[in-house]
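User: I want to check something. If I give you two sequences, will you return the structure for each one separately, not as a complex?

Assistant: Yes, each is folded on its own. Here is the first sequence with its structure:
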Amino acid sequence: MDWTVRVLDSADREIRRLPTAGLKEEALDCLEHLAVNPFPEGHLKLRSYPNRYRIRFGDERYRIVYTVSRRDRIVTVFRVRPRSTAYRGMRNP
């Protein structure tokens, strides 16, 4: 694993609040894959935000939103939410 994955406390809470154990496992599996490749097939750069990306999971109903520091090789996960609320209230850093 070449990349370090940091999960913010807020995202960790969101993972714990996922409605089923299967979704939690799928989210954790996605995080493990980000440690190997932060730009997996199906990732998308968010247009209005510099250096923010998302991947889908849970039959594409949920999103993991994260940033990537190429210099430090760190992936920072800050949202794990249903699609309907994943992008609400995001601000540019």
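And separately, the second sequence with its own structure:
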Amino acid sequence: MRFWKPILLGASLATALIAGPQPARTQIQRIVDELSLSDDQKAKAKPVLDDDAAKVRAIRADTSLSDEDKRAKIKTIRTDTDAKIKAILTDEQWKQLEQARAERKKQGKKK
């Protein structure tokens, strides 16, 4: 039975390699993942969150922008993303998202 462990490990590794590297999750993506979204909500939220993450990554990688310019552009993107996500979520889910953000912000200040 011992010979199965390397085979299973190899199969898991092969599956991970085929799937490719997973992009880093943004904070809003992690928070939305914690909400109980319906399949329809997930389908609507995914492209919004993916677009948000791609735009933010591009801004952070842009060496021609000052840190202040980057913060301003990211804030604009996040405001737009929030409006799109709010339209997808129920009122209760939106409250949960805001509460989770507030808690994470508070935890960040403690560090």
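Because they were folded independently, the notes below concern the second chain alone. The mean pLDDT is 80. Helices lie at 4-19, 27-34, 39-61, 67-88, 91-110.
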